[in-house]
Structures
1.
Amino acid sequence: MGDGVSPCVTQMPPGTTAMTIPSERLDQIANRFAEIEARMASGQLEGEEFVAASRDYAELEPVAKLALELKAAREEVAGLEDMLSDPEMRGMAEEELEALNARIPELEQQLAVAMLPRDSADAKPAMLEIRAGTGGDEAALFAGDLYRMYERFAGENGWKVEPVSMSASEVGGFKEIVANVTGTGVFAKLKFESGVHRVQRVPETESGGRIHTSAATVAVLPEPDEVDVQIDPTELKIDTYRASGAGGQHVNTTDSAIRITHLPTGLVVTCQDGRSQHKNKEKALQVLRARLYEQQRDAAQGAEAEARKAMVGSGDRSERIRTYNFPQGRVTDHRIGLTLHKLPEIIAGPGLRELIDALIAEDEAKRLAALNE
């Protein structure tokens, strides 16, 4: 959408200074929305034109509503100020002015956030990759805990999680698991989860009661449409082999597992989850497309990516972002210095929302501050 506005309306952290949005900008938003509304009501749009207009309408509608509400509030203030000279109306006018003067900065703040440029990938589904890091068996168990946390959080949001590839650990959990997460606003909510997640707890096998520290890495990649990333079949090296389970034993007797190497970039993707070679190839290409898309995004964003890194971390999988301390029942996100003593609720899934909302709010606050500089 050409206006560069976002439908996201989020409360900003306390102390954030709202932008003062000129009346001309409010009129511009209202006029643009009215124009789209009139075009859609005209009955002259068909096919792709109608789809594009519908998308623009849906994106601009919450922004336009805020703009109109703010404009009406400002006009009401002007009217109430005129009433202050009337002794009989003064008391009522002062009371209503106090409420409006408190409401207007909130509306300006919400509208400023809604007008922030959107990440074009926010509405896309995501590829979730979790890998056990340092810590051996305990790291694999933790990777399993993280996967179930995201799976339950997805359920809370009405999303669908479909495993693409997994390598189970002999003691439970996963050495690696890749899953596709689909639904509304998946990448927008999960994109700040990328990085190293550290756990501190006493393993069940630890008889001395010592706390062990282990880690797992999480990567959340926006999943592109086929038109976003074109893959030339001649640039792929495809190998088949027999799928194996925990401990290396073969789980079937056919060469159904797939390894795809993208020759120009050296990216390698494997998939051995299904018994069908064709389905494993489809899933491997799905993962490859997501990784290539992320490379393209990183290259295109440049300075924007550096700015995002300064906000809530780069999302780089080598960066420690969060610690889950089981003995103390707390979770700390190191990027924003937030500690919540709600570990059971967070690891269960629903409690993750508070952390994610805080990360999104911090990102929006920093981007607003950058616009004000």
2.
Amino acid sequence: MNAIDTRVLLTNRKQVALFSSDAQFKRDVSTRLDALAIYDVRVSETADFLKGPPADTRPGIVILDLGHGEV
């Protein structure tokens, strides 16, 4: 059984940037990663990927959903 470790500090959480235009995909992936308590997920539209990471964070993991190759 997987139990969520509530002792994980925010500073120990891995930063994830999730870029997608698919609302269902964003909801599914961010819900699953947030449930693991070791990821801090920031969700944006795919077009925002070209702007680079937000100034206040540098993600260690980037998930880019290209869909059908459309941005």
3.
Amino acid sequence: MAVALAIAATIVAIDLSHELVSRVSNYRSRIASLNKRVDRLKRQAVADEKRLADAREEIKERKLMQSRDRMKAILVAPDRRTIKLAAPSPGELATATVSISEKMGGAVLSAHSLPAPPEGQVYDAWWMLKNAPPAKAAEFRSGIDGSANEYLDPPPQGPGPLSLSITMEPSEGGIAPSGSVKLQGKVPGGIGDERSGGAKKH
């Protein structure tokens, strides 16, 4: 009787061992399959990230080309007018000219001797409006040679702008100027009159 029980127990143990081995082998196979799938998804994710980065770079290049084309068009526009900007503090060498075209709906800033802003700060261009808050026209950094050539958004609809100011601001940006004025200049009369629907003189 004892021998029979021992034999039965051995058979059961062998069956359990075979079942355990089979389950372990199955689990290992599934884990290996999942690892391959994870690796495949990782490779796909890397490829997708590269395609996304390439697409962003292409969009950036297209926007840059569009901006350059728009700037060139403004600079040769028949209705182009020029605004002179100067540093408000005596002794500062920074100067700039702004070419604005009502027809092209924008302006081009060309600055010289404008020191590169410190880390964490940028230059902001502002249209100073009558009876309205300042309107940001651009955010930019000058080069190490102090030059900057930037496209400026046109002033908003309404009475023509009174002046244009360049201030130094935190890089997070803001909706109104808060830093020191580095360049400023008055806008010639007449700019913005057609856009605002002002009456024509006879």
